[in-house]
Specification:
The chain is mainly alpha-helical. It has two helices and no strands. The longest helix is centred in the last third of the chain and has 22 residues. The mean pLDDT is 77. This is Preprotein translocase subunit SecG. Its main location: membrane.
Length: 53
């Protein structure tokens, strides 16, 4: 019985440590910038669909 549920918590500890660690070489983009770009891109696509159709 002891072998059926062993290691679950220990295996997730590595993932938590991996996701908490920030890479200094990673590109850091502000979430507001991503949201603004997405909205502007959506508006651009809508304008293109109105002019082409």
């Amino acid at each position: 019985m002891s072998g059926s549920n062993s290691g679950g918590l220990m295996s997730s500890a590595g993932l938590v440590r991996y996701f908490e660690n920030e890479d200094r070489n990673a590109i850091a983009i502000d979430p507001k910038t991503v949201l603004a770009f997405s909205v502007l891109f959506g508006v651009f696509v809508q304008i293109l669909s109105l002019t082409v159709a």
